[in-house]
Amino acid sequence: MRVSRVLSYKKQDHYYHLAKKEGYRARSAYKLKQMQKKFKIIRRGNVVVDLGAAPGAWTQVAAEIVGNKGRIIAVDKNPIRSFYKENIITQQMDMRSKRLFNYLVDEVGKKANVVISDLAGNTTGEWRLDSERQQYLATLAFVVSKSLLVKGGNFVTKIFRGPNIKEFEDDVKPFFKSVKHWRPPATRKKSAEEYMICIGFTGDTENDE
Q1: In angstroms, what CA-CA distances link 145 with 13, 47, 203?
Q2: Catalytic residue status for 158
Q3: By residue range, what is the domain housing residue 60?
Q4: Given 98, 158, 166, 190, which residue is catalytic?
């Protein structure tokens, strides 16, 4: 019954059909496109780390923006079908793995201009629990961003509205010139998700214990 409802929704979903038409691997491509249009997160020639990248829709959008002189490192615990482009590197690793953190530090160093994270776990339907799980993933992405971003770099992460978001935002704010919450129009109406847009990494580690 649930599969039937999902298939029915896809038939009616504008962004699902648009992604099929324009060759994107998922409708989520339009969330990043809308964020890019509003906040200018990624620039031509940037080095971008894409966390939770599978199936690769955000990687596609980022690659269009950075051009041939930019570079994308896309990682996910699920396999990502190859893009067959020299400037896109894909890796299948779990975000919680120390191995992934070490790989990114070795591969990227302190040279990432942008870290984008669409990481998401399985939802339970229990609002508080789902929010806490998503905050955990957002925190992992934040830790990675602090280790990889150049000064002035940008960080985007998915969050769920919940009681602990203010605490997470307070942890992030000292490290960026601007931190905003935004819900792209392409977000499904029933979804609790939104994105934290963090602009201008300061490199400040005074509050990082």
Answers
A1: 33, 12, 10
A2: yes
A3: 26-201
A4: 158
